Amino acid sequence: MAGWFVIALGLAAALPLMPAQAAEGRATGSGAFLEQGDRPAQTLADAIAARDAALARLRARLDTVQTDGNGDAALAQAQSDLSAAEAQVTELMAQFVPGSSPASDDRPRPDARPAPAAGVSYRELRIGEKVKFAGEHWAAQTRRIQHGSDGSLQFHAAAGERADFDPERKIRTELIGLSRFEKGQAVDLKGVFSIDPSTRLTGADWCSIIQIHQADTKRADGNYVNASPMFALDMLPDPKTGRPFLQVVGETGRGEQTTFSPTRVLGTLPDVELGKEHTFAMRVVDGHGDIGQVSVWVDGVALVDRSDIPTGYEYVDIFKNAFPVRGAPQQTGSYLKLGIYSGKVSGNTPPAVSVGLTWRSLPDP
């Protein structure tokens, strides 16, 4: 059961992944972080390619941990490989790309920043690093997640800050939940949140701060099913004022789900006072296309409280045994995601989003 949460929205600075540069130079390291079969990095382009390969291997390890619940040793090794690869890139960029040294702090800063709590120190989580928060186990899916000495978490995201698997039109800073919630099992979250007054959502088609995803089930051809999250708590800009408002989305589908399901807006909070704390509670039950529950309260007022509607997707049950993976039935349980996920439905440029998110878990009363 998830615990109590405090959510405060603000923004912190970030240094996105650097693209491959035209400048090249000799690497002074041995390239020992490369797996057997890779050649040692000799140029900046080689080092960046090696870093990207190490990141891909780490992603694969993280998927194994999230699916099977094991593989900690392999995950730790993959994290070490990525750290060494990134150090090689940083060293070469400092030599051949002016202003790229970590000592340089002249990079542009986003507008809004989460206010650090007094006496709390923060460190950035590595991709794949696991953390226990609010009674659940999570893993960092992206960079730009700060873990406080008091157990709090700070997320920040702006245009250009995304996961390596995202197209340019998306923005992402997220934790992925390692727990699975089976059909009929309730997912409960309670807490307090505030939205930073400087939050900007210009041009965003969506900005989710909580998601529940159905199991990542594959079809016979090995491709994943196209389905949106079965639940999301979104922030969106008001078309007239540009101020954020909250929206509860709960999607569902029967059959094999050959297309994305229609978006169902189940409730809204049109006037969220920025900079003020609001109480929050939710309960979601995945029905796998059958009757479930979506209930969300803000300041004691129900945005939605429905236990008579279908939730989730049926395809997970259809494909579970029909298309086994590595000889085993596919997962059917849904899972949480926590953080910032924004973007546009189409196009090649991201929206002008500047968002921060801070979570602090509180003990049950």
Descriptive notes:
There is one protein chain. Helices cover 16% and strands 34% of the residues. With 365 residues, it is of the alpha+beta class. It folds into two domains: 4-14 and 109-362, Jelly Rolls (Sandwich); 19-99, no CATH class. Strands 1, 2, 5, 6, 8, 9, 15, 16, 17 and 20 form a ten-stranded mixed beta sheet that branches. An eight-stranded antiparallel beta sheet has the order 3-4-7-19-10-11-12-14, with no helix packed on it. The protein is globular and about 50 Å long.
CATH topology of the largest domain, by name, is Jelly Rolls
- Give the percentage of residues in beta strands: 25-35%
- The CATH C-level name of the largest domain is Mainly Beta
- How many domains make up the coordinates? 2
Share in helix: 10-25%
Look at the structure and give the mean pLDDT. Answer: 76
Following the backbone from N to C, one meets helices and strands in this order, namely EHHEEEEEEEEEEEEEEEEEHEE
The CATH level-2 architecture of the largest domain is identified as Sandwich
What's the β-strand tally?
A: 20
- Terminal-residue CA separation: 14 Å
Largest sheet: 10 strands, mixed
Q: Give me the number of helical elements.
A: 3
Structural class: alpha+beta
Shape: globular
Specify Rg, calculated over alpha carbons.
21 Å
What ranges have pLDDT less than 50 throughout 5 or more consecutive residues? Answer: 1-41, 96-110
Region (Disordered): 97-119
Signal peptide: 1-22
Keywords: Signal
InterPro entries: Polysacc_lyase (IPR025975)
